[in-house]
Description:
- It is a single chain.
- This protein has three helices and no strands.
- The protein is mainly α.
- The model has no long low-confidence stretch (mean pLDDT 76).
Amino acid sequence: xxxxxxxITLAGRRVPIDRIVAGHPVTHVDVKMGISAGTAWQWSVCxxxxxxxxxxxxxxRPHCTGCSL
Length: 69
């Protein structure tokens, strides 16, 4: 599920992934799409590996609060 202020839909998130997989540099794709380089990298890794669910927004809270890592 996307958060209420998301600028790019799930279908729109496929576009930078397809461009990166096609060989375009992430630094060019992120500028053209108006997203951060970190977001572009995250989508390019999670998208192909996890499919559409990998492009959904994720919780920013830690998975475990009692873990000692």
